[in-house]
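Q: Fold this one first, please.
A: Sequence and structure below.
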Amino acid sequence: MAGASAQERSRVTEVSSPPPVAVVGAGSIGVAWAIVFARAGHPVRVHDVDGARLDAVHAELDERLEQLRLHGLLDDPAPVAARVVVVAELADAVDGAVHVQECVVESEPVKRELFAELDRLCADDAVLASSSSMMPVSRFAADLPGRARCLVVHPGNPPYLLPVAELVPAPFTADEVVERTHALLAGAGMRPVRVHQEVEGFVYNRLQGALLREAYRLVRDGVASAADVDTVVSHGLGRRWAVIGPFATADLNTRGGIERHAQVMGPAYLRMGESAGERDQGVDGTWPVELVGEVATSVHERLPLEQWSEHVLRRDEAIMRLTAAGPELGA
């Protein structure tokens, strides 16, 4: 842009700069979201009705950013911290924001009241996203005039370390809103995952809840102590799941891939489910062939079956790097 004037260069910089984001709710998730967006270059305004929470934001922010720096995950905390400002008035916080990330208490009446206010205050093209862990947006935004720009964006906790973000639109959410939100999050270093149905708990907490329910049953029935259940997960399942998910794990645990795993292990897994009262997963004592085929197709797109041995070695190398990183919390 050699011949451009200073004013023209300024306009280009302004247009290409990441747009403002508002975070409403200054608890731990709100501060964590502020880090995600500010680290990606967005100016971030944080609001909370509790003045004490607002007063605590910068100290918590500085502490977390310094931890990221100490672990080699952030070069310089200062520019990131400088992009985050606390704002006492909601209207000022959301003024000009292209995305509003709600992080208030998991209460339907509270969210309903807040989203009605956000819908009134925000620009018509601003996305209104809830960090709800369990509640679909239909439960608190269905009656809003601007309901088409509302959805759930549920993060792992904390999102600056666990980059998965579930995008959960309602039937009334505009596709364009989902696409814009996906692009915004991907640009901020997140791994957006679209959830296609408004089921309670979405994907993250349904998986987490399934494990937790079984963990409670094992303790209740005297099979194992709570400490030993935690050990099995932290030193076994969790360590492996840190590098690959459950379907990829099954694929790499059995020579012949996930189809062979379903044949060999599927009936036992279904019996375990039936012993806990689950009745709707199996057909004639095994998972449906069509369902296994759908999952296998997805897995083999990422992990081609003809390269199975190489993928096993890559998995093991990743676990070695994780093991070498240091002791686990509470080990």
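Q: Good. Now the second chain.
A: Here it is, same layout.
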Amino acid sequence: MIGPLRHLRSQADAAPDLDERDPDFIRERLPGLWLLSSVYFRGDVRGLGNIPDTGPVLLVGNHSGGRTTPDTTVLVSAFSTYFGVERPLFALTRTAPLSWPPPGWLRRFGIVAPTPGAADVALRAGASVLTYPGGDREGQRPSWEAGRIDLGKDTTWVETALRHNVPVAPVVATGGQETALFLGRLGRGSGVSVSLALPWVINVGELAGHVPLPAKLTIEVLHPIDLRERYGADPNPAEVRDDIAAQMQRTLTQMQRARRLPVLG
């Protein structure tokens, strides 16, 4: 299996081909995606009107729900319904989901691997980009840490927004960490996560994803930020990252307090 797996990973890590996103394909499948988002996850997406009507924007979100990415499903569905499928949105996600069957489906939805320069290509083309700086580390954090924002130490997304002079719209989601019982890593420093999830019961590494529980997902898009307007002509990327993370943490704390019961919301 090593050969096929390496092939799938190399395909996922290839430079993004923006033409693979297929508006007609998305339009045909949007009703089913809407049912999954609105009925199964009871998705509540707020603040889409905060996103500028035209032009590129960098959506920066906290990530929950492991590699099954229920938060991305709900947000992409809502974005496509609100703005129309013709407005391009590209979501950067890890390579494993891009390799899952049916082949090519996620790419046709605009899901691309977070390779170096992927966001540059999309923003330069006038598209919007959704990125999760916390990646798998944040998405697979223990379920009892669901109320914690962890964007990590990387500042690439800040530098990208500054380079293209595009606004940053923070996106805060809650509920995804209730789609399974995430137990954290196998030992300190390990990159291997463990969770209790259907259908595997014990799921090690999230390599095969999981069938998510029907947890209620709530997502809030905050007002976009012109980085130079807020932080000055030559902002410190680390300070920008930390300030935006703190703003997202305040919002997430409020959203968590509003949840009454796990899964039910």
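Q: Anything worth noting on the second one?
A: Residues 2-222+232-257 form a domain with the Glycerol-3-phosphate (1)-acyltransferase fold (CATH 3.40.1130).
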